[in-house]
Amino acid sequence: MIISLVAAASANNAIGKENRLLWHLPNDMRFFKNVTWALPVIMGRKTFASLNNKPLNGRLNIIITRQKDWHADGTVTAHSLEQALAIASEQDYKEVCVIGGGEIYAEAISVAHKIYLTRVDAQLEGDVFFPVIDPKQWHLSSERSFAPDAKHAYAYHFQLWQKNKA
Q1: What are the residues whose beta carbons fall under 8 Å from the beta carbon of 10, sequence distance 6 or more?
Q2: pLDDT in tens, 98-138
Q3: What contacts 6, CB < 8 A, 6 or more positions away?
Q4: Contact, 136 vs 164, CB < 8 A?
Q5: What is the separation of C-alpha 162 from the centre of its chain, rounded to a whole number of angstroms?
Q6: What is the pLDDT of residue 45?
Q7: Contacts of 90 (CB under 8 A, 6+ apart)
Q8: Where are the alpha helices (DSSP H) in the chain?
């Protein structure tokens, strides 16, 4: 099963502050939906809370939490990244998308095969960060760039990173 990280990060790797995104980029939201549609998404409990505690439609939502009795309708609960990946694998999915937050990304990057990253051209203050992508382990295989416009305050780039072969 392919493990993909799907994230948007500023130039300084900030991905959020006070459990909120740092920007509003409609094209990024569309990109995120297209990449994750019909695939399982793995996220931490705080990321789920940032979605107003509502599961993402059209996707199996797997929520990682340390709280043993936590549950939300329309989701599956896991208590570790390994358990979340096993749940997706048992459902016979070919790919799973890890969608945050910072702790989950930091743990998952070592086992991931791909990173779908929207790189936002801004240095922004945050309290949650995407891990640094090590160029010894990853290579940029494609990138599409977009300028700011009436709906997008920042320039941004849709990047696909692939893990280097060992």
Answers
A1: 22, 119, 120, 122, 123, 124, 126
A2: 999 999 999 999 999 999 999 999 999 999 999 999 999 99
A3: 32, 35, 36, 41, 97, 98, 99, 115, 116
A4: yes
A5: 15
A6: 97
A7: none
A8: 26-36, 45-50, 81-90, 102-108
